[in-house]
Specification:
Layout lengths: L1 E6 L2 E7 L2 E7 L2 E5 L5 E4 L13 H10 L7 H11 L9 H10 L1
Antiparallel strand pairs: 1-4, 2-3, 4-5
The site of zinc ion has 7 residues, from loops.
């Protein structure tokens, strides 16, 4: 068995007219099994077509990739705050006070 490639998990960002969508793409490991097959495995799938289970190797390789980087929405939120978004934030108490004045 031989590990050919490893890719860590990441978020894919999709742009829409009304905002962004974040889709998690799990990490994967490309393994060449002793039977000769080359397959892509994840945390949830680690058994080759021949029946050999490569769970231990797949887990070790994916964990060796380190921690996942900061989720993209955190960066987007900071940019929004720096771009003036903070002034749009209002406490619910403001609404209550306004309603009480009416
Ligand atoms: Zn195999």
């Amino acid at each position: 068995m031989r590990v050919l490639d490893r890719r860590g998990g990441c978020y894919e960002v999709r742009e829409f007219v009304c905002g962004r969508d974040y889709v998690w793409r799990p990490g994967c490991v490309v393994v060449e099994c002793d039977c000769g097959r080359r397959e892509v495995f994840t945390f949830l799938r680690s058994v080759c077509g021949c029946g050999a289970d490569h769970a231990e190797v797949v887990r070790r390789e994916l964990l060796a990739g380190g921690l996942v980087e900061e989720p993209p929405w955190e960066r987007d939120y900071r940019e929004w705050l720096l771009g003036g978004g903070r002034r749009l934030l209002r406490s619910e108490l403001c609404d209550r006070e306004e309603w009480e004045e009416i």
